Amino acid sequence: xxxxxxxxxxxxxxxxxxxxxxxxxxxxxxxxxxxxxxxxxxxxxxxxxxxxxxxxxxxxxxxxxxxxxxxxxxxxxxxxxxxxxxxxxxxxxxxxxxxxxxxxxxxxxxxxxxxxxxxxxxxxxxxxxxxxxxxxxxxxxxxxxxxxxxxxxxxxxxxxxxxxxxxxxxxxxxxxxxxxxxxxxxxxxxxxxxxxxxxxxxxxxxxxxxxxxxxxxxxxxxxxxxxxxxxxxxxxxxxxxxxxxx
Length: 246
Prior knowledge:
By secondary structure, this protein is an alpha+beta fold. Helix content is 48%, strand content 11%. It has a single domain (2-9, 28-37, 48-242), classed as Glutaredoxin (3-Layer(aba) Sandwich), CATH 3.40.30. The chain has a six-stranded mixed beta sheet, with helices on one face. It is globular.
């Protein structure tokens, strides 16, 4: 309950931009050119998705030799910029070849809003989670604007019982309607948000995993286990090619 309590009561409805878009660490190792791997008959690697033991969403060939992990905040403008510029070519030119897989791990940099959106991704089919994250980033002003415009009502909702609190916050912030337009019905969203134990578990797991990997800014990219210096699509694409996706 400790992480969730901190998220709820440490400026819970603010969308501060600290720790968003800072540089990460060392560059990825160079690698030999990786061979393309065909997807199983009747499928594509970009449509292949699974949850990972670390709580992320993995897209692509699970055995790909080049593994890209993004620790990202769903309310981070730098993460949104990467998504807008890089998601389409990452999927089409790299993941779909079977050489690269991509895993998204949510970081709750901006507290309760990140937590609610991440929980919405958990409510969706696994294969829909990363495309939905891209939709959030593509509409970041709309998504965050609902929370910024309804401060007093949102603060009151924080006092509701746990089984009602996250349902009400999602509705007031506009998330329920946003995701309903993208395939998650209001009934599905409300049921997910009413599961306070699952929300608490999500807060604990995401925080623990980010701490384990020393992540303190978003986006942070790991390529075959090494932190990348750059966080823009051009930087990441260059690293992928150096690692063998060329």
